[in-house]
Design brief:
Elements: E1 4-10, E2 14-20, E3 26-33, H1 40-58, E4 65-72, E5 75-77, E6 82-86, E7 91-94, H2 96-104, E8 108-112, H3 113-124, E9 133-138, E10 142-148, E11 151-152, H4 183-187, H5 189-201, H6 221-229, H7 233-257, E12 261-264, H8 267-287, H9 290-295, E13 297-300, H10 306-318
Parallel strand pairs: 1-4, 4-8, 9-12, 12-13
Antiparallel strand pairs: 1-2, 2-3, 5-6, 6-7, 9-10, 10-11
Helix pairs in contact: 3-10, 5-7, 6-8, 7-8
The protein binds zinc ion.
Amino acid sequence: MAEQLIGFDLGGTKMLAGIVGTEHQVSSKVKRKSMTHEGAETVYNDIVATIHDVLRESGVKASDIAALGMAVPGIINRKKGVIVRSPNMGFYDFPLVDRLKAEFGFPVVLENDVNAGVWGEFVAGAARGYQHVLGVFPGTGIGGGIIANGQLYAGAGGNAGEIGHMILQLEGPLCGCGQRGCVEALASRTAMSREAAGLIANGTLTGVYAENGADIKAISSKFFSQGLKEGNPHIVAIIDRAADLLGVHIGGCINLMNPQLVLIGGGLVERLGDYYLKRVDKAMRATAWAFVAEDAQIKAATLGDTATLIGSADLARRSL
Ligand SMILES: [Zn+2]
């Protein structure tokens, strides 16, 4: 009986595939750069090549694969297996599941990437043992995922949990989704980098911080971890403001869902650690109703990249 699974994490900078066993153990991880600027067909061909690579590397035959879980960013139609809209990848109404099924023959299940990551932490990581979890993943964007009563709450089409695209400021900065003033446009690492770029351009930030100029793309999470370590007041102020905004937003969200655990993952907490987590926690507790906040622990995710592989594979297995 086919028992092995493939978990696949399609990201904006890289794609990652791994063989996932029944106990959530991951082997033969294969990585490839996402050539997103070359359009959907190139990205698709690279997905296919990465799956062939992981099969070859692991020595597992396609006939021994029970299912493939595809975790993708953007808006999906889970039932139809279609990526409705993933602008960064160039996917619009792309029938990913049908095409991969035709290529490999095994069942393929489509998931939102952050939902899959939160599920991975739930079955094998920091969220194990909690029945009600709000996952928040601030990095270049801000993703989210909800576990309610021990089940992934994916919503009608598979797109629930988009905590980053709730509007916090009317007429605020433009968001990648086309709206203005989304949490993601105010508190993501990209928003922080935009703020830092402004301070470089006007001469407030100088020296090593201004080395790469005011190019937003050159201002990475490392820039902020260094600024935090050295106690640069301007950079610390950017971090504080972003963490406070996110904490306030999460405070409202936990009033809505009363979770046991707020799980924070992604690039910012990986780089800024406890300082960031505590700041978010404080703002969250100052915002939420006290008795709702009392129910909610806050924790950092522990599995990193692997969470999405484990989660997408496990969700695919469960949908068989
Ligand atoms: Zn948005």
